[in-house]
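Sample A.
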Amino acid sequence: MLPAGYLTMPGFDPAEDHIGPFYYKPVEPGFEFMFVAEQKHCNAVGIVHGGVLMTFADYCACMQATNNYAVESCVTLSFNSEFIAAAEIGSNLQCKVEINRKTGSLVFLAGKIATTDQLILTFSTVLKRLRS
């Protein structure tokens, strides 16, 4: 069941389908993103796996950079992250992403993943624009 006002894109990216589901909601400017942490998202110590958080961050950055793939696609050239706190099963994880600069071939972004009361991860990334 989709959270109220959020959408998903099953079938677009098989890896994200397997790891997610990840959700987005159009807002001005851009999008809001979220997912709910389930057992399948956790590591051996019962917290959300860092790789899942980084995949979610990459999903959010690509969606924001391409305006939901409206006219172009992208690939990740670099990705840096800092884990601030752990997220647990049942956490509603939200991501906010800002475009710092967009050139003819690159997009520079920064973002944060948080629960309603705690910052979980910060990240910055550079994406290569791929025009259709």
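Sample B, a different protein:
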Amino acid sequence: MNKFLLVGLGNPGEKYQDTRHNIGFKIADALCAQYKSDFNSERYAEIASLKIKGRQVFLLKPTTFMNLSGKAVRYYMLLHSIKIENVLIVSDDLHVPFGKIKFKRKGSHGGHNGHRDIIEKLKTSLYPRMKFGIGSNFKASEQSRYVLGHWLDEEERLLADFIKAAVDAITNFCILGIDKTMSEFN
């Protein structure tokens, strides 16, 4: 059976719950709910197990904080013998317009500390990723505050539809792979 590891990046704790940086967690929660599964607290993460069209999917929300996400990703890849091409990292991205999603087969960390740690721990940047656009509506000195800030009311109103589209795209990734997903959703 084909096995997948879908990782939503974010920071644990109420303080970060509805911030832009935690969109990976929000998308993971929506995917978990759609497939009527539940997260359980385990080593380095909250994890849920579900099936998508006969494929075994492990859904992960690292509890190691964003900057140490690689430890959880590596641990669960090894634990469940998941091939790197079947790992999908879901994160926020400042370089993508708000609400847009962009799939990539590989890439640099692009200044994202979660990806930086994953690349370091896996010793490769050759893993699929889905970037959820949070836009870049901030002054140069306010990037950190913007990323860790809460959604504006107008963004919040649109978020549910954008998250639904992201969940559909992730389902597509599990069924058709990265190439077809990139051509359909990018």
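Observation for Sample B: Residues 3-185 form a domain with the Rossmann fold fold (CATH 3.40.50.1470).
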